Amino acid sequence: MSVTTMLAPSARNSTSSTSSSFVPVTRQNTIGSDGAPRSVRASKRYSVTALYLSMSAQDKDMEIEDELARVQKTLRDLKSRISSQSKKNFVLEKDVRYLDSRIALLIQNRMALEEQNEVASHFDESSELQEGTFPDDRKTQQYGNLFFLLQSEPRHIAALCRLVNMAEIDSLLQTVMFTIYGNQYESREEHLLLTMFQSVLSAQFDTTPEYSSLLRANTPVSRMMTTYTRRGPGQSYLKVVLAKQINNLIELKDLNLEINPLKVYERMVKNVEEDTGTLPANMPRSVSAEEAAENPQVQAIIEPRLTMLMELANTFLSTIIDNINETPYGIRWICKQIRSLTRRKYPDAKDNIICTLIGGFFFLRFLNPAIVTPRSYMLIDNIPSEHPRRTLTLIAKMLQNLANKPSYSKEPYMAKLSPFVTANKNRISKFLNDLCEVGDFYESLEMDNYVALSKKDLELNITLNEVYATHNLLEKHAKELLQGRDTEHLTILLQELGPAPPQVPRKENRAIILPLFSRWESALDDLSAALDITQEDVYFMEAKSIFVQLLRTLPPISAAVRRPLNLKKIADVAATTKDIGTFRKGIRGLELLNQLKDLGVISEVDEYQILREEVEQELVHLGSLKEKVTEESLKLDEVYKTIRDHNAYLVSQLETYKSYLHNVRSQSEGKQRGKQQKQHVLGPYKFTHQQLEKEGVIQKSNVPDNRRANIFFTITSPTPGTFVISLHYKGRNRGLLELDLKLDDLLEMQQNNHDELDLEYVQFNVPKVLALLNKRFARKKW
Amino acid sequence: MQHRREYHIVILGAGGVGKSCLTSQFVHNEWIEYYDPTIEDVYRKVIDVDGRSCILEILDTAGTEQFTAMREIYMKAGQGFLLVYSITSLSTLTELSDLRDQILRIKEADSVPLVIVGNKSDLEEDRAVRRDRAIMLSQKWGRVPFYETSARKRQNVDEVFLDLCRQMMRADVGGSGSGGGASGGSSEKVYQTPRKRRFCVIL
């Protein structure tokens, strides 16, 4: 059983005994991974858990400072550091990707000055984000309402995911994965995120005509699921199942396991030629694939390699199967959704098709990319050399062949590895099905949401630009979004917010803490009314919680903590201490003992045996919990270190670019170095057909002469280096045609001596367009 | 025996657009019926281009975006590129721009032998990408050849590979790659067909 499971409240953990072992203090880790159906009793027990957790969430006046509390705090800190560091890395990666492409243009000397400035501005303040607040409280409140709604009702985000295009996905991805549901180890956010996936997945199943095209395309959802698999828990898992074996393998730099006969033959020829200086007559330089495969020498080389490959792949497979319980809950749950959606949508689907689809997620998008390119998954430090790289690719192909019906017609030589597929077909099928055997969380999610409502301090660390970008996307897709069911609240909030503000320049972007609260539901004062539990349960839980807390607070040498426990004595001792928190707990403990006695739940005669035993069990559980927590901390420490290293790598990459750009800019000095480009929209500027024709911008027009007077163009520059050219016809509000242009596209066309820019009705001359843009949009800078 | 030139072709494009089906049709005359996502497959075929025999080594790549880290190595090794999208999905076309940018960056060139391929043309009823969208892209890239193909029906399959071969041969002869350019010969190229003018309809 995984550590994660051990930490989960018992109700989610139906394999545990009837004892209820709750985790007080925190609720950051309630993701279990066992799949047995929950009993009614357990379900009720869960309600109690939620209540209990909500009590401790509200109860801030008592800080427990024992060993357990300390290691738990370490773990909590570590988790929040991993979450925030992941986000930083994500942003950095985006920057590096962007600069990768820009710098290439610079190298080819094809970047306009203003764009150089823009790139440079990327570096300004690219270090730490300043903290700040919203300019006005009303907005804070409105956005607080909006983001509470978005977070607690994932269907809005799910709908948005289906509407956005790939160009919009990056900003949405960041906000959704690292901000709205950014606490990677917090059950409520995790469950809401998974609910969101489910809703998008099920929509995808509904709109895909045949299963063979399911989950194949690169969509916003597939990207989100990948990003999800690469968060903390997924990273830990990959380390556990892959890191050691991959590292062992790449150390064997000279181990060549190529089995493609053509490649083997080629190398053989090359070796012979190098050794003897000539080629024997019976050894032609190039042969067909069939000839190579039939060559006995080639066969002799390949034979032992096949055995070795199968052994290697088998080790990989065994490690994966043996560590099924290390697989993060959310990843298993996604597999489960794929299975149940397939069964629902295609009732005739055979087991192998279900396996194929699960494998299409678990192997194709999660494990195999890490096997093939371990460095980008931070599993190894250096890019592997040629032979190990090929071996890893072959292993990934073999694993993928297990999940899919392999078509050896693609690469006939792979058929030699079919014994591996045959031998493991049942094993993999069982494994993929076992992966799906995890419990659902809907019930606990409902509870978590109650708890969230009763928590007064729900908040989101978010940046201004994330807020605005999300608002922008909602606004842009409002028409479709608000068509759905139950969107009244979103409609109201968007109406009140008004138009979405544009992105602020990087320098003015701020990290803010946005308090989240619901506009429609108020905190539940009486949680027990909302849940299926009695007053007795409530008292009993509270009493247990209080006594456990008291026992952890009182000095271990105190006579009160001696076994067998004397609950009354403990409460008495606490009620006489000076510490106000402990004092209150003591008084409350005494009250509760009396109330429970009056209700007939416990009796003084047996010294409150039922309650006493539960408290003792809980303490035992907490004792072992400490070790588990410490163990998990060690593991996460590794993960944290890895992503810190990755961060360092990214930062150094940025530094390189920075100095390169600095050089280029100081070379082109004298023009207007250092001038900061403002990010506001320039234009639209209006041009008549006649005007452009005269200037030679229009080099060819298909507009009939008598209509030309009615045609005009507008050019806007939304950001430096990007332009929108629209063609209008008088009397119509909407343009007939719109063309998005990047300055470097134009430059590239010019470079290629391609001077026609086609607007369907007219053709522009590229150099003239460039001249026009320079004149119009550059002049505004000075 | 005449020494045959060897050319390296890399097939790129989003997941599920039919890269493997296209390649398998070209190399083995075979249609792959079931779902078998590619991680990395290598094919070899000897073909005759305008009377010259050459060996093609064709690298069929993973469309699954999670494998993008491998692309750089492929692009370094490749001499000609088929950028494949599916006419049933607009996003698969838009993904091509990033691929081309990356190729040019890695090649440090302004143009490379390249063909835009709109596959699944037999699925006309599911068409989501109008021809002129791809033609626009082809124009934008300097008149890169563009074909619509059907791997299922084996339509235009040989043509795209032949066009690419001619480009690679020309680049080979001319030293520096001379860009997409019109390749001589028989193959019909979509962008040359006169385009419908929406103008008259609208006004």
Automatic annotation (TrEMBL), chain A:
One of the Pfam families matching this protein, by short name: RasGAP_C
InterPro entries hit by this protein: RasGAP_C (IPR000593), RasGAP_CS (IPR023152), RasGAP_dom (IPR001936), Rho_GTPase_activation_prot (IPR008936)
GO cellular component: cell cortex
Record's keyword terms, sorted: Coiled coil
Keyword check for ATP-binding: no
Compositional bias annotation for Polar residues: 1-13, 22-32
Molecular function per GO: GTPase activator activity
Gene Ontology BP terms: negative regulation of Ras protein signal transduction; signal transduction
Span of domain Ras-GAP: 188-404
Protein name: (Perigord truffle) hypothetical protein
TrEMBL record, chain B:
Main localization category: membrane
EC identifiers of the protein: 3.6.5.2
One function term, GO molecular function aspect: G protein activity
Keywords from the UniProt entry: Cell membrane, GTP-binding, Hydrolase, Lipoprotein, Membrane, Methylation, Nucleotide-binding, Prenylation
Protein location: Cell membrane
Topology in membrane: Lipid-anchor
SMART domains documented for this protein: RAB, RAN, RAS, RHO
Enzyme class: hydrolase
Catalysed transformations (reactions): GTP + H2O = GDP + phosphate + H(+)
Gene Ontology CC annotations of this record: cell division site; cellular bud neck; incipient cellular bud site; plasma membrane; vacuolar membrane
One Gene Ontology biological process: regulation of establishment of cell polarity
Coiled-coil regions listed in the entry: none
Family listed: Belongs to the small GTPase superfamily. Ras family.
NCBIfam families reported for this sequence: small_GTP (TIGR00231)
Protein name as it appears in the record: Ras-related protein RSR1
Upper classification of the organism: Eukaryota, Fungi, Dikarya, Ascomycota, Pezizomycotina
